[in-house]
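haha ok so turns out i had the wrong file open the whole time. this is the CORRECT one, sorry everyone. sequence first:
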Amino acid sequence: MTELPDIESLQLLVLVGEHRSLTTAAAQVGTTQPAASKRISALERRLGVRLLDRSRTGSTLTPDGRLICSWAERVIENVNLLVEGVNALRRERTAQLSLAASLTVAEHLLPTWIGELRRQVPDLHVGLQVLNSTRVCELVRNGEIDLGFIESPRRLRRLRSQIVARDRLVLVVAPGHRWARRRTPVDAAELAATPLISRESGSGTRDTVEQALLATGLTPVEPLLELGSTTAVRSSVATGAGPALLSELVVASDLAAGNLREVATSGVDLHRTLRAVWHTGAAPSGAAAELLALASRAGAGPRTTSVRRTQSERDRG
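then structure:
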């Protein structure tokens, strides 16, 4: 029985047929002419057929070589189809549901929602990117994900949205901070004038703070520290670096343990909505629609608004 040839040797043979030159074919596959000649010789021994006529002027395919070359082209084409098909299956398997979410939603809400969805659809594979709200909206607009989750109050452009939960920002300090024993609330004016430890520009939490203060006619001063994650902000506050406004979801355990202290505020509304977002031209379907329904049910009652109302909202990112 004839030993099966390797794909690399067949590819080299096809290139010799195309270029009518072993040297050129060798260069195409990144090898030397002597190495290519040895590979073709090995292929001839394996098949028991002479494939090339070699002379001082070059190498050309024999009649048998031309016939085998035509068969080899079909084999290589089918191998390429096989590889493309496998890659398509892998892409489909690993990206059945593509999501992006801001940090608060990704860390405190999505794990429960995704867990429940996977109990309903055991074979579902979910891809999740954790980004700030601005980047989530960009991915949705570009069609790179099926569904996004944001916490920013900004108006949405070319996006539809639905409220899936409500949240509140709380002013927190370390137990040793001078505000920890404060008996009077921090009003909007004092809050706006106080440098806070803050997330980066584009973060939903920072947007919420800025919009809330602007609604009172005040502009916040520059942050004391600008950090790239909620965890970094929380840790900095705990070390006594300064105050911060953080999600109630994020700091609940720290407040219960006494690692942080909440400071009352007045004159500014720090409540916010957490929303699912999708492109205006592509309503959620399949697993994305199931996740959206599940998230909405989880925040049912007074914590959600109707789809009709929220779909009319424009980019609050």
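Residues 63-94 form the longest helix (32 residues).
again sry for the mixup
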